[in-house]
Amino acid sequence: MVRHGIGADDGSTADDRGTTRRRTLEGAAGIAAAGVIGSAGSASAADQGQTRQDGDLEDGPLFDTHCHLIPEETLGREPLSADGLVAWMDDNGIDRAVVLALDSPESYPVLASSPWILDQVEAYPDRLIPFCSIDPRTLVYGEDAVEELLERYVERGARGFGELKAGVPIDDSRAERIYELCADYGLPILFHTDEKAMIDEVGLPGLEDVVASFPEVDFLAHAHGWWAHVAADVEEADLGDYPDGEVDEPGRVPELLGRYDNLYGDLSGISGWNALTRDPAFGQAFLEAYSEQLIFGTDYIYPGQAVPQLELFERFDLERSAREAIRYRNLEDVLR
Ligand SMILES: [Zn+2]
Question: Does domain 62-335 have CATH number 3.40.50.300?
Answer without folding.
Answer: no
